[in-house]
Amino acid sequence: MTPLARLLTASQFAFNAGFYAVLPYLAGHLTGALGLGGALVGLVLGLRTFSQQGLFVIGGALTDRFGPRPVVLTGVTLRIAGFVWLAYATSAWTVTGAVVLVGFAAALFSPAVESEMAREALRAERAGGPRRTRTLARFSAGGQAGALLGPVLGTLLVYGAGDASFRAACLVGAALFALVLAAHARLMPRGGGTRERHGTVRRRAILRDRRFLRLALAYSVYLLLHNQLYLALPAELDRVTGSQAALGWFFALSSALVVLGSGPLERRAAAVLDAPAMVRAGLLLLAAAFAAGAALRPLGGPGAALTLTVLLTLGQMLILPATRALLPDLVPAAHLGLATGALSSLAGLTVLAASPPTATLLTLPGPTPWLLLAALPVLAIPAVPSAPAVTAKALTRT
């Protein structure tokens, strides 16, 4: 990997480690230490999701205009401030403000980092380096390693620091982001923005581009199905064991698969598939996850839950790097940040709109709900666009 790719991968690791050291314990802190009611807790968590995923498009557009460096530095600074604020917030309104700031910070730095990583992966590939999907798979594995370590770190802090447990987790998270800030301030290249005169018109054209919207549709289906690790998986564990006590182990398994298997899976897949075909193969794995789960559910035991977790994760390991690799071929380089942010925002809005009916669907008995979910990625496969020929325009900002 190039020095910039290593910096961005390490940053993704630290981002997730700091974030997941705090997030799993936020709801418990809100209901326990602060005594907030369930509806208010739901509102706070919903605002966090919206201020992050829903606003990715803003971070992407700012990245295109000013370059990734100032957007990343601003986002990380706001994340530090948000975590420190959250550590000392003692009322519903101050917690809400801190949580929104934490989410908006990610809406700035995540699209900047992801779009720059896609650009760097393409640049390295054209210079004779590794395939862009391999570089992006390593990037995904780095982020997942942080997601795996973060809850462990949070558990040690939350259960080892007494009354100040949540505060300690927040401050450790802020310290990790301070290290990220220092590394980017020193090592991240300057420049890269564009101030093209007709940028607004061209940005609107990107959001109406059929190839981009088709990819966004397929990616939205992926995110909705992957989100079933938070809906279908807990419901299945409740059904077969009467509790969700084992849920953490399934999430740990998913993270470990990504960390250990992303590289080998990418090498084998890329030997025979291009990026669009990898996305389609990933969607087939998502369909297989629910179809096999539906077949295993009548047998009882953890088979359906285990199959769902493994196959959804394998699908994720193909779809994420392949989607990031495909974006530079579909949109002008000057708007790669916007496209990266818009992709996440559109998918996030889809999940937000579809999750309530999906949760209701999962309450129905029998295999029907799982079979209906298995049909969604199959229907999305034709939407995946083919990649046009890559030109030098993908590497420069015009």
CATH topology label of the largest domain: Growth Hormone, Chain: A
- SS element count, helices: 16
CATH architecture of the largest domain: Up-down Bundle
Beta-strand content? under 5%
- Rg calculated over all Cα atoms: 21 Å
β-strand number: 0
Q: Quick one: CATH class of the largest domain?
A: Mainly Alpha
Q: Give the biggest beta sheet.
A: none
Which stretches are low in confidence, meaning pLDDT under 50 for 5 or more residues running? 195-199, 389-398
Whole-number count of domains: 2
- The SSE string, one letter per element, is HHHHHHHHHHHHHHHH
| Shape annotation | globular
Tell me the CATH superfamily of the largest domain: MFS general substrate transporter like domains
What separation lies between the terminal Cα atoms? 26 Å
Main structural class: mainly alpha
Average of the residue pLDDT scores: 82
Helix content: over 70%
Describe this structure in words.
It is a multi-pass membrane protein. The chain crosses the membrane at residues 33-50, 71-89, 95-114, 135-160, 166-187, 212-233, 245-265, 277-296, 302-321, 333-355, 370-392. This is MFS transporter. It holds the Pfam family MFS_1. Keywords: Cell membrane, Membrane, Transmembrane, Transmembrane helix, Transport. With 398 residues, the chain is mainly alpha-helical. It folds into 2 domains: 1-192, MFS general substrate transporter like domains (Growth Hormone, Chain: A), CATH 1.20.1250; 210-385, Growth Hormone, Chain: A, CATH 1.20.1250.20. The chain is 77% helix and 0% strand. It is built from 16 helices and no strands. It has helices at residues 3-20, 26-31, 38-52, 56-66, 68-88, 92-126, 132-158, 165-187, 199-208, 210-226, 232-241, 247-270, 275-296, 303-330, 336-361, 368-380. Helix 1 (3-20) packs parallel to helix 7 (132-158). The radius of gyration is 21 Å and the shape is globular. The two termini are 26 Å apart. Residues 195-199 and 389-398 have low confidence and may be disordered.
